[in-house]
Amino acid sequence: MSLNGALNIGRSAIVASQAAMQVAGNNMANAATKGYHRRTVHLAAAGDELIQRAQFVGTGVQLLAIRREVDTAMQSRFRNASSQENSALISQRFLTALETIQNELTDNDLSSELSNFFNSFSELANNPEDHAVRTLVIEHGRNLANRLSTLLNQHNDILAEVDRALATAVLTADGIVDRIAQLNIQIAQTEQGRSQANALRDQRDLLIDELAEFLDVSVVEQPNGALDVFVGSIPVVLSGISRGLEMRTQSVGNQVEVTIRVAADGTQLQVDAGRIGGLMQQRSQTVQPAIDDLNTFASQLIFEVNRQHAQGQGRTGQTSVTGTYGVNDPTATLNSAAAGLDFPISNGSFFIHVTHQATGLRTTHQINVNGNADSLNDLINEINVVVGVPNVTAATGLGNTLTLTAASGFQISFSDDTSSALAALGINTFFDGANASDIDINQIVANDPDRLAAGAGHVPGSNGTALAMANLQNQQITALSDRSLREFWQESVNGLAVRTAAANDSVDATRLVRESLSAQIQAVSGVSLDEESINLLLFQRQFQAAARFIAVIDETLQTLLSIA
Questions:
Q1: Which is nearest to 188 in space by CA: 250, 243, 241?
Q2: Residue 530: in which H helix or E strand, if any?
Q3: Using CA of residue 514, residue 179, residue 250, residue 153, what is the dihedral sign?
Q4: Lowest mean pLDDT: which of 20-34, 288-302, 358-372, 377-391?
Q5: Can you give the pLDDT at residue 354?
Q6: Quick check: helix, strand or coil at residue 114?
Q7: How far apart are CA 126 and CA 463, in angstroms?
Q8: How do residues 494-506 score in pLDDT, each as one tens digit?
Q9: In sequence order, what E strands does 54-196 have?
Q10: Three-state secondary-structure class, residue 370
């Protein structure tokens, strides 16, 4: 080996140690930098040189690569864990919010108001002629209606909050997707298949980690260094092209449907985790079902109370009655969508009683009705012509409501409604409205407590209707799958409580998994200042030794030159 070759050995050692010290210093400088991956220097002995037969000597050291320490499989698991944790946090947030506004197990909850309402009918049954008790029943009914309306407004506020958070999250995620696509272009242009742009790759990995907080994503690296990003099997980033994300809303019936789509072509995304996935799940599986349950409860409360009330009698008779529920088309069958009634009418009948006020003589007339076959016009014809109820005229009122008017000196009352037509059309009812959005006390009853139906059978001072009302809270209702009003609401409340407890446990579990994976990633990619200090000392010594080696070779050359 020549002296020049020896100098090259020293030179290679100095270059390698300089690079290694620079890498160690860079690692130490970025020890606290978020998203930074530790760099490692990979050295190898240079090729041997033949100096004589069968004798080889080394030619120094070469720098093979400066690599980022990354475990891609662990990164993928970490991103999945991050998505699951953010989804669990969203679930916990909104389940807790719903549980808070329901405020059950206190004295100011819907269950308490329901008990107060039905218990007031029990008290009315004991004192059916007491005006003060009648007023108390109406007041408890109003409190219950107000509680339902307030709960619905609060549920709708939470739904609006979900939609706002969803719109913000989608907009943020769309921005991250755009930046990932831009970094893909920069990385491909910088690397050109020859090396790795480590700093740019760190930035991109950090963005993908952020994106995983919003969506459950997966990545596939291309030969040019670009990463394709997928949500499920749908690409949202293809090399340097961002396909974008957007939220779309569409009215379906009385509800608003929300979908997450690829902005480029409108492909719908199935997002199962992350903040966006959690918000979508809470919207469709928690908040909207809670609103539906509340409306179902209110609707059945209105209908069942009105069914009983419509068949009862108050302290004073009625000379005219106008229904509170009109139809869209008086020629359409009552149960059809064209009619637009909120409550169904069965195949049955009800009785109209006409009482002469002066003599007290009463006539009874059976009115047959079939909601699947008869229209409002048919029902009016049944009363006026087919049965021909004397001294009573049926007509279509304002808003296509049913109006019954008694002749002078006569009063109208009702009983034995097996068709539910009276309740469905709003004849002699206690509540007005169709669900929690518009439930209220019938103004006729609210303005005159003597019109509150407590009696039955036209017996003065009787309490039959009041007793039937009091028993409603525990009566099984077919429309509620044979559950009572109280059971239906308690099941809804208990189901929410179970899901909230599960969400709390899920947050703890997913956080533990994410933190464990983060620690494992730090073990691979994180910077240890102690380790880097040792590396720095090692390569410093290597640099010093190489410099001393070059100095020795230089002295040898000087000696040879002086001899010459």
A1: 241
A2: helix 529-563
A3: positive
A4: 20-34
A5: 94
A6: helix
A7: 8
A8: 998 999 999 999 9
A9: 55-57, 61-68
A10: strand
Query: Which residue from 65, 61, 19, 62 is spatially nearest to 42, judged by alpha carbons?
Result: 65
CA dihedral over 452, 455, 461, 463, signed as positive or negative:
negative
540-562 pLDDT, tens digit per residue, is: 888 888 888 888 887 887 887 78
Confirm if 349 and 368 have CB atoms less than 8 A apart.
yes
Report how far residue 491's alpha carbon sits from residue 482's, in angstroms, rounded to the nearest whole number.
Answer: 13
| Lowest mean pLDDT, pick from 15-24, 46-55, 307-316 | 46-55
SS3 of residue 127 by DSSP: coil
Question: Which pair of tokens denotes residue 529?
Answer: 């200042």
pLDDT digits over 258-278, tens only? 899 999 888 999 999 999 999
The answer to whether the CB of 424 falls within 8 A of the CB of 431 is no
236 burial level (CB within 10 Å; 0-12, 13-18, 19+): buried
Closest CA to 415 of 372, 373, 367, 476: 367
Instruction: Report the alpha-carbon distance of residue 366 to residue 351 in Å, rounded.
Output: 5
pLDDT, position 322: 93
Q: Report the Cα–Cα distance between both ends of the chain, in Å, rounded.
A: 20
Residue type, 3: L
Phi-psi region of 200 (alpha: psi -120 to 50; beta: other; left: phi over 0): alpha
pLDDT average, residue stretch 215-234: 90
DSSP per-residue letters across 280-346: HHHIIIIIHHHHHHHHHHHHHHHHHHHHHHHTSB-SS-BSEEE-S---S-TTSBTTSTTT--SS---
Q: Which residues of 452-490 are buried (b: 16+ CB within 10 A; e: fewer)?
A: bbbbbeeeeebbbbbbbbbebbeeebeebeebbbbbbbe
Give one DSSP letter per residue of 139-164, joined into a string.
Answer: HHHHHHHHHHHHHHHHHHHHHHHHHH
Q: Which residues pair with 351 in a beta bridge?
A: 366, 415
Q: Which residue has the tokens 């006409």?
A: 354
Among the listed residues 25, 79, 29, 40, the one whose alpha carbon sits nearest the alpha carbon of residue 204 = 79
Token pair recorded at residue 329? 């088309």
DSSP string, 187-235: HHHHHTTTS--HHHHHHHHHHHHHHHTTS-EEEEE-TTS-EEEEETTEE
Helix-then-strand count for the chain, H and E: 13, 18
β-strand 402-406 against 320-322: which pairing, if any? antiparallel
Name the residue ranges covered by the structural domains of the chain: 3-69+526-563, 71-304+482-524
Taking the alpha carbons of 118, 471, 107, 491 in that order, is the dihedral positive or negative? negative
Contact 24, 6 (CB under 8 A): no
Q: Check: CB of residue 12 under 8 Å from CB of residue 537.
A: no
Residue 306 neighbours by CB distance under 10 Å: 26
**Single-letter amino acid code for the residue at 128:** P
CB 256 within 8 A of CB 288: no
Place of tokens 């290694």: 20
